[in-house]
Amino acid sequence: MSQVYNLFVINKSGGLIYYKDFGSTAKLDTNNSLQLASVWHSLHAISMEFSPVPDCTGIEFLEADNFDLHCFQTLTGTKFFVVTETGAVGIDGLLRVVYELYADYVLKNPFYEVEMPIRCELFDYHLSNHIRGGKDRPTGGSFR
């Protein structure tokens, strides 16, 4: 199974609205997670502006020596990105499932205000269960 280290959700303005650590060795404190989300949002926006390819949608995958970073941007501008072990497969499918969980448990919550920090126990539960290999939610593809 591919190791997922962290999950970030960034609103269209670049604000971090959700962060979850799934057992990375270097735990991020609140300030570092906010800084990383801000840097990623800025790099994503810059890559769209300066890309030589017309209609570029930004960086979707970044490969480093010790980790990979995968990003999924919704049509509304919300970005989901995960930090994984190098060579992780099926992460695009995982990001789509995370988006489905977000739509089901966050956006359909009548008490949630769009673009605000996510505080939803059902979202946390189903997200953690799915990433840790739980079978309570059918998926279109496996990230294992």
TrEMBL record:
Please give the chief subcellular localization of this protein: endoplasmic reticulum
InterPro entries registered for this protein in UniProt? Longin-like_dom_sf, TRAPPC
SUPFAM superfamilies reported in the protein's UniProt record:
SNARE-like
Pfam families with a match to the protein in the record: Sybindin
Q: Which UniProt keywords apply?
A: Endoplasmic reticulum, ER-Golgi transport, Golgi apparatus, Transport
The answer to whether keyword Protein transport applies is no
Q: Name one GO cellular component term.
A: TRAPP complex
Domain of life, per UniProt, equals Eukaryota
- Please give a single GO biological process term from the UniProt record: endoplasmic reticulum to Golgi vesicle-mediated transport
Q: Where in the cell is it found?
A: Endoplasmic reticulum; Golgi apparatus, cis-Golgi network; Golgi apparatus
The record's note on quaternary structure and interaction partners says:
Part of the multisubunit transport protein particle (TRAPP) complex.
Family named by the database record: Belongs to the TRAPP small subunits family. TRAPPC4 subfamily.
Report what the protein is called.
Answer: Trafficking protein particle complex subunit
Tell me which species this is from. Answer: Chara braunii (Braun's stonewort)
Q: What is the lineage of its organism?
A: Eukaryota, Viridiplantae, Streptophyta, Charophyceae, Charales
